[in-house]
Amino acid sequence: MVLVIALITAGCVSGNAATPVTPSGISLAAGTPAGSTNPSGSPAAASHTPGVGQTLLTPGHILDMTYPFDNTSIYWPNAQGFNLTPESAGMTEKGYWYAANFYSASEHGGTHADAPLHFAKDGRTIDQVPLSEWIGPAVVIDVREQCARNRDYLLTVSDITGWEKTYGRIPDGAWVIMYTGIDTQYYPDPVQVMGTGKKGLSAIPDLSFPGFSRESAEFLVKERTITGIALDTPSMDYGKSEDFPVHQVICGADKLALENIANLDKLPASGATLYVIPMNIKGGTGAPARVFAILP
User: Quick one: which of 70, 115, 103, 72 has its CA closest to 278?
Assistant: First the structure.
């Protein structure tokens, strides 16, 4: 896991797009999401120094696939959203700056990971899944055209085998990603992403967005050897689902899932490697996650 640790400590993940890593060093803007500033108002990444990530990744590219968490982050309508409360921010009596915040949120919202326990009674918790298991080849199945015609589109087995006709059999350990275009184009607009801007249980019947079909999930866990599935919507089941069969299939097979992942328009159909670093919540059914890809 040297690679993952080095990437974190080097601060070399870009907030919006792929950042080239070259022998001359990493872009100084690579460590901070777009729009971030330090307390003085200048770009927070300006003082960052290229680290060991450049030697590990040359000449690769890092693509950040994580939406920043704030009060606009997409959560299930009846779940507690993300809330950040400033606790301290200012100069102390001893003359140094100190800032700290309090945050709270449900496990399942924004860019996040699902552990098997989420829909499997005896499934593993998020902290029981080793980091090595969160890494795998990225398989991107582009169904934007189908989803543009039908917001409630379900990924089919034919969509999967169609990808394989072009790129070959899905590699073992892969993350199979459904590229709907919904989050990628509209996140975090709740009406465009979820089909409704309402909150609470009354919003559930109005949910409308694409997802995997039960048949596609069963095919992937029975006929292929995958790490998990992912997509750019709030749920691997489509919005109209009432019994969440895809969650049941994936979690029941001890597989993993990612929801609300970003920047799929920059991820190639094949050849990239996906890395996921979920918050290590003991007993967690899921967790916010930093998701990124190393591009070919």
Answer: 115
Q: What whole-number distance in Å separates Cα of residue 244 and Cα of residue 70? A: 27
- Percent of the chain beyond pLDDT 70? 80
Q: Which residue has the tokens 């750019």?
A: 232
Sign of CA dihedral 203, 110, 17, 100: positive
Rounded-to-integer distance, Cα 256 and Cα 116, Å:
6
Say if residues 246 and 258 touch (Cβ distance below 8 Å). Answer: no
List the structure tokens of 266: 């920059």
What domains can be seen in the chain, in order of their start residue?
Answer: 62-67+107-294 (3.50.30.50)
Whether the predicted model's global pTM rises above the 0.90 cut: no
Q: Residue-wise over 191-224: b if at least 16 C-beta within 10 A, else e?
A: eebbbbebeeeebeeebbbbbbbbbbbbbbbeeb
Q: Which residues face 43 on adjacent strands? A: 37
- What would the two tokens of residue 99 be? 């800032």
